[in-house]
Design brief:
By secondary structure, this protein is an alpha+beta fold. It is built from two helices and twelve strands, in the order H-H-E-E-E-E-E-E-E-E-E-E-E-E. The longest helix is centred in the first third of the chain and has 69 residues, at 34-102.
Length: 264
């Protein structure tokens, strides 16, 4: 453990003084005066030992207090992070409820259990076929933000494929003046790719993408992403785009599964 420089200087001075005192004793002894000063030196030695051990104990107390303070700071930081996460989740649930008040869609509330292992960008939720979940059902958070589709279903849990996975495809519409259609594909990282937008269609950064509703079981108007960059090649029949997701789905624990088919 490293100590501050002032503590090193203090410790050196505490060691230097006894050395000087010992030299003085030998000098006095050589002059035959040891008996004369023995009693005062003995009394001073007792006081010095008391001061020495008190200082060492005090230094230990300071170090102990510092350790406890560091532990307290870490605890407060963890508590603050937990409060921020809770606030994010509360806002997420509030936004979901507001979205479903405006959109009369059948939903199944669920909680994310864990990110699934393996090469696919997937996660598990705590609802399954016994709850009405089916493969292909969209999964949303916040105000109708699409984060994935149900891939596989068991009785009491399901696997959701994130829209960020390269095997994910979502039919989308661009909220521009002509409502251009395209297809969004995951790229395996934190961004998406937009394909098949005709060259003559307007496409620009900051354009918003939503689901088109042209694929089975997927309602229109779910938020997907924002155009970050347009890659236009005049010789190609279609434009390409780089898309940023609306949010980071890994920050959310509570999700809603949209039923692709009504209850029987």
């Amino acid at each position: 453990m490293r100590f501050p420089a002032w503590k090193n200087r203090l410790s050196f001075r505490k060691l230097l003084f006894p050395a000087f005192l010992l030299g003085a004793v030998f000098f006095v002894a050589s002059l035959g005066l040891l008996k004369t000063v023995q009693r005062p030196l003995s009394a001073f030695g007792s006081s010095f030992r008391s001061l020495w051990f008190h200082s060492v104990a005090e230094d230990g107390s300071v170090l102990g207090n510092r350790t406890r303070m560091e532990e307290r700071i870490l605890h407060l930081l963890e508590k603050e992070a937990s409060c921020q996460q809770l606030e994010t989740e509360m806002q997420n649930v509030k936004q979901q409820l507001g979205f479903f008040d405006r959109r009369p869609l059948e939903r199944i509330p669920a909680s994310v259990l864990v990110q699934a292992p393996g090469p696919l960008n997937t996660f598990f939720i705590d609802r399954g076929s016994a709850d009405g979940v089916e493969a292909g059902d969209p999964v949303v958070v916040a105000e109708g933000v699409l984060i994935g589709k149900v891939l596989k279903v068991a009785n009491h849990h399901a696997t959701v494929l994130s829209i960020l996975d390269p095997s994910s495809r979502v039919a989308v519409a661009v909220l521009n003046r002509s409502h251009s259609l395209g297809l969004v594909q995951g790229m395996g990282g934190s961004v998406l790719a937009l394909h098949f937008v005709p060259q003559e269609e307007p496409l620009a950064p900051e354009d918003l993408l939503v689901t088109s509703g042209l694929e089975p079981g997927m309602p229109s108007g779910l938020l997907v992403g924002i155009v970050n960059r347009v890659q236009a090649d005049p010789s190609a029949p279609f434009q390409e785009g780089l898309i940023e997701p609306i949010l980071d789905s890994k920050q959310y624990h509570f999700v809603s599964v949209l039923r692709s088919r009504p209850y029987d």
